[in-house]
Amino acid sequence: MRLSSTKPGLLALLLVACLAAVSAIDSHARVARIAIDKVEAAADGPYERITGHAYGELDPGEPLNAGITDIQFAPRNAQGKVEYTARFTLTKPLDMSSASGLLWYDLVNRGAPVTPGNGASRPEQLGHVALISGWQADLGETDKNWVVRAPIAKNPDGSAIVGPALARIANLKGTHTSRLTMLANAIPYDAASLDTGKARLIMKSAEARSGVLGPVREVATSDWAFADCSKAPFPGTPNPRMLCLKDAFDAAYLYELVYDVKDPIVLGTGLAAMRDVASFFRYESADSQGTPNPVAGKIRRAVAQGISQSGNALKTFLLQGFNEDESHRVVFDGANPHIAGRLTSVNLRFGLPSGSGTLYEPGGEGTLWWTRYADAARGRAPSSLLDRCTATRTCPKIFETFGASEFNARLMTVALTGTDSRADLPLPRNVRRYYFPGQTHGGDIDGGFDAAPVASPGCTMAKNPNTETEQMNALQVALSDWVLQGKEPPPSVYPTLRHRDLVANTAEAMGYPAIPNSPLPTGMAIGLFDYDFGTALNYADFAGVVSTQPPTIRSILPALMPRVNPDGNETSGLPSVLHQAPLGTYTGWNTTSGGFFKGQPCGGGLTGGYVPFTNTQAERTAAGDPRPSLEERYGTQRGYLCVVRKAIARERLHGMLLPADAERLRLQAVGSTVLPLAADNDIQRKTAARACAV
Predict the structure, then answer these.
(1) Which of 247, 378, 434, 622 is deepest in the core (most CB within 10 A)?
(2) Is a pLDDT exceeding 90 seen at residue 1?
């Protein structure tokens, strides 16, 4: 219809309607436009990958944005909106008629896509449209990462916002200079002043994971500088993100600096960016400038998965109500926070979203359970991770998946039993929980059936070869089917107090055997620290301002650990095929072999261990090993393969092993040489016969 032929009254009504529609669009936070930077054919299948940037706008007055820390102090554009830019990559089938209708959103981990393990399925291989986009604003953008460019908060008069920071540096020797880090993670904020008199640097001679200290030395303000002295001698070249010592770093000490930083990034825009980018590709046909959504009209449902640090971010996303977009639509119908035992400081002033939960790092302060629970131990009112989405009917269907390391290094005890550990917390109807026993953090990437130990750098015990890839592949399909088709997933399987699966963290309570020349698990579990970060932090929501550094430790709530059998292997959960046909003891914990943290949990508690069984009964007797040898368990290679085949059949029956993975595991086991092919004695002959008996 041409406007010239439209009646004046109708024209006026149309103009009013159009203006109202534009006004409605502008009133909501949204992806205002997308820019496609690159379209390329995928090398691994009939897909194309579309990479670009999403340019978003947030209304600071919108209630759904009100929880973003410091958004009121962010600069605004001419329309009064706060802007951000997020890099994205969309992977879609070349022929969208074959697509499943599911948008699978993977949260990147510290800016990088999570590399799948051996045999792992990718969403696009299952017919889904795969999406990744940046959510961390504290990382510098490169061509190899996906981040958010977010604004810097300023005081209303334009002056810098200043607050306390804590840097911790360990295991350096000989050098005079270091980046200011929280152990492995660089602090992305400038020191507010280069005057060392306004900061305090100490050297710790010893430190337990509980915060108990050995003797401490204070470094004179004249003996260090905020500077880089890698190319110039002390006091070096001034640098607000580096530390220069007059005397070289001594690896016998941990260096801890309390100082003020300035110019906080409005990190919470990353959660809004995740919400709005996913919502755009799910619901919209085009951006405000007419650039089409490449998958418009093809998405019926959406699922988000976050692994480790990004899984913590996904829990934070749900807790803080970001699964509702500003048109009040559900963003994700399904969610899988995997190996994620805490929250991420993505909505704190001067937060460190790349943090890994070491001593004094926040992450356990917020609500960590799926059902409403009163945290009396810390004086908190009843709450749950799903309070906000329950109120708005925007909760997703949830798979919570995790392994052994999440008990000893993360906070899964609290998630399962609350802060008092008196009873199992019930799961809501929309949540399923699956536990993988005997796993290092995320499981081994390659797996395999080789009994020979492989060194784990920096750890006492060998690398844990136990893999969870196959189970996660099956659960990825189950979650997709639950969301797309309403097909009921496998029932939850995890350790409980009711079944006496969870016990105190001592070798005696756990039933752990005394293996010669091997450490014991006693004290390896890292409990929940009740920190005092000051009164400006919203503890339950895990948002706001940290005003006290380092925090006071009010108390430590002990973690429980899963019970084990006489081999030292856990007895609850969903065991892998290798766990059911063990070649040794598989643990979710390990000990540090040297350096400042010698004897403490290795890898911050995230690294598991492996202690192989002896080959023969004679070797076991000579070593004094209480665990039966491989010979006594399986007899021959044929006996071992019988046990593996039975385990594969069980997992297929329970829906926890896809056909392709089952065949791959069978071939791996056939190719292994853990035992002799033919029996050499009666023990081997009789044991093999028992192993192969129906």
Answers:
(1) 434
(2) no
Residue 23 has pLDDT above 60, yes or no: no
Alpha carbon distance 101, 481 (integer Å): 11
351 and 432 share a domain? yes
- The tally of CA atoms less than 13 A away on the side-chain side of residue 318 is 35
The 3-state DSSP class for residue 326 equals coil
Helix ranges restricted to H, 27-100 = none
pLDDT score at 148: 98
Residue range 109-133, pLDDT digits in tens = 999 988 776 777 889 999 999 999 9
**Maximum distance among all Cα pairs of the chain, rounded to whole angstroms:** 102
Judge if 257 and 272 occupy the same domain: no
Mean pLDDT of 358-378: 95
Residues 92 and 213 in one domain: no
Of 412, 410, 402, residue with least CA distance to 435: 402
Provide the token pair at 669: 């086991």
Total number of residues shown for the chain: 694
The phi, psi pair for 311, rounded to 5°, reads: -70, -40
In whole angstroms, give the CA distance from residue 120 to residue 492. Answer: 22
Reading the block at residue 587, the tokens are 């643990």
In-domain check, residue 574: no
Structural domain contains residue 72: yes
- Calculate what percentage of the chain has a pLDDT beyond 70: 96
Q: Which of 423, 454, 485 is the last residue of a domain?
A: 485
Number of alpha carbons in the 13 Å side-chain half-sphere of residue 671: 7
What secondary structure, in 3-state letters, does 297-311 show?
A: CCCCEEEEEEECHHH
Structurally, how many domains does the chain consist of? 2
Domain span including residue 355:
37-152+266-485
